[in-house]
Amino acid sequence: MEQRRSPGQDRSNAPTRRQALGLAGASLTAAGLLSSCGSSSSSSANGPHEELKIPTTSEVEAVDGLITSDIEGVAPLYVGSPGAYRDVVTEKPASGGSLSSFQILWGAPVTGHDENQVWQQLEDELGVDSFDITMVPAASYGDKLATLLASGQLPDFVYIQPSDPNAARALSDGAFLELNDYLEGDKVEQYPNIATTPQGAWTDTARNGALLGVPNPDPVRNNLLVLRLDAMKEVGVDAVPEDAEDLKSLWLELAKLGTVGGREVFGHGALEPTTFEPLHDLGQEFQIVDGKVTHKYLLPQYEDHLAFMAELWKGGFFHPDALGQANPELFKQGQQLNYEASFAGFYWVPDAGRINLCKKAVPTAEFVHYAMPSVEGGVGKHALGKSSGGMVCIPADRGKDEDRVRELLRICDYYRSPFGSQEALFLNSGIEGRQFDFDADKNLVPADNPPTEGACTWLGLLQNRVNQLPEVNKDMLENIKETLESATSSGSVSKVDSLVSPVQIRNSSKLDQVHKDYYNAIVSGRRPVTDAAELQQTWLDRGGQDVLDDFQKQLDEAS
């Protein structure tokens, strides 16, 4: 089965988040693009829209069996698949003509248009005569986007990841059409599926009051931690400790087991800093402390956190290759006892989710999800992501034709069709009998040897996230819900989370490498824990201070 993903929240693995049954099987500036746009655009992101009038948010039509949460930012859960799917788009969005897009390719290259039944059906669903889709692998997205922007020849839709330096430059320089006049306030109700977008997704993607694209909503946290309960029972523990020191003791006991269920096992695989940061309440990457912007690495408890991690390393908790290329498949092979992944990574479809693959490898395996505790007591402070996993933008020069803009927005509205609709089923899963079938429990399952056609439907806009749990895993429902709610409610954001810093985007890779080099050396014992101060100063000297100053300047100017 082909698998397509949405970028966003499986931070520990791939750029995340394709929900349900995914079936997809040198720095350049935007100067060329901007000169081609001329005066045809609305005001740029630095233009007159200083006060954002957020589009109204409408309720999504309820689907029987949908399990919602009272915690904002937690995605609804659904066991199995709906018994019936409804039509929500009653008229085709377009009336002929051509359409074009630039989007990410998840998975293997797709079959060409003339042999691709999904591509052809997509054209029919949208009401266009032809759809020229440019699909680029996620790994080369930044370079391909830079080339596209420099060419000045943009397609009707461009998928944008705002954290990409070239995308950020294009957004700030007016490359894309402002959509305020089409979507702000109640105007969005002309597009009922877009109107279900949570307000956080609009504020996360707006720039200086300008709506520069249609955002793809995402839960602010959708990753889960899991421990092998069967391994815990072997050391006499049947519940995850709520105290961080007790959890450390458990982890170190698990590291001594050697084998579980007939498999060689390791406590944890790769050395993943973000997984363990809630232990010391590190929280968001950038924070405001006493009115000043700071970074989680600069918090006073960071040295204690490094010492804690160094104890885990010394006690053999991590795989021997944790600093290099630890096998990412250890968990599903039944060899990793503590693990983090997105909900989709654990429960994608009955035969592809890592929980069930682990169970297949070790039939006696049992599992328990948990929210990381804090050394200060209670649940640790978990980092929260953006409410949007990117957005689809319309080039500024399309603003010359308002009717065309409205047609393009109707097409975006089709892509945002909700969970439980025929449209979302097609976009997410392809064609029944060709890409998927339903099993006896009404779960979507892959068809035998499905053709690689489906990735073309990934424009970058999806249904509002619903975490679909296979029937076979319904015994995990309450544990999953409680864990997501605990982790999400533990986090908090500040004004700095809504800011975009070009300085930060430009320095991000370099600063990440500075931290990685010191972190790995300190945790593995090659440097003393007291080098935490040197880590912090080097981070500041290599560009971190410039980033903090830029965020601080923005905050001061907004106050």
Automatic annotation (TrEMBL):
Residues 1-22, 35-56 are annotated as: Disordered. This is Sugar ABC transporter substrate-binding protein. PANTHER family: ARABINOSE-BINDING PROTEIN-RELATED, DIACETYLCHITOBIOSE BINDING PROTEIN DASA. Residues 35-47 have a biased composition (Low complexity). The lineage of its organism: Bacteria, Bacillati, Actinomycetota, Actinomycetes, Micrococcales. It comes from Brachybacterium avium. SUPFAM superfamilies: Periplasmic binding protein-like II (SSF53850).
